[in-house]
Amino acid sequence: MEEQGIIKRIDGDIAKVAFVKKGGCGGGCSSCKSGCPKDTIIVDLKNSEGASVGEKVLVEMDSKTFKNMTFWAYGFPTIVTVIALALSIFIFSKMQLANYEVYSILVGLIAMMVSYKLSGKLNKHKDKYEFKMVKKLNSFQ
Asked: How far is the C-alpha of 98 from the C-alpha of 92, rounded, in Å?
């Protein structure tokens, strides 16, 4: 996977590259009122191309790394939430609780929140993610 970024700072041979977060909607932000974040993500990587502050660079990440990041961000919390929801429906219905669906939804929501917190703690490979500066880009790209 390749992404364009902008060099924000150089510390020795390490470049701090900023990437704009992309929305899943396609980015028609001027007509949208959903309040999506317009933040950037800063990644430290080796300045192998000798880029300067303000230059655009192409950064590459292997697909295994991308899949790993995606699993911890989306897959793990989804799996935990679905399992907690299914188990709580099964258990609460066997207990013959009135409105067991409502209790199950609450258990699912709590499981989702906890799983997002856990995914950050369990994903200890953050420092091992390898990003590689491929090339400097011209300003017209």
From this structure: 9
> How far apart, in whole angstroms, are the C-alpha atoms of residue 125 and residue 109?
26
* Residue (of 88, 127, 128, 120) closest to 104 by Cα position: 88
Could you count the other beta carbons within 10 Å of the beta carbon of residue 35?
6
Overall pTM > 0.70: no
User: What is d(CA 48, CA 131) in angstroms, rounded to the nearest whole number?
Assistant: 11
| Nearest-angstrom CA–CA distance, 83 and 134 | 41
Give first-to-last CA distance, the chain, whole Å: 18
Q: In this model, does residue 37 exceed pLDDT 60?
A: no
Beta strand extents in the chain (DSSP E only)? 2-11, 14-20, 40-46, 56-61, 131-137
Instruction: List, for residues 54-68, the tens digit of each pLDDT value.
Output: 889 988 887 787 788
DSSP H or E segment with residue 94: helix 76-94
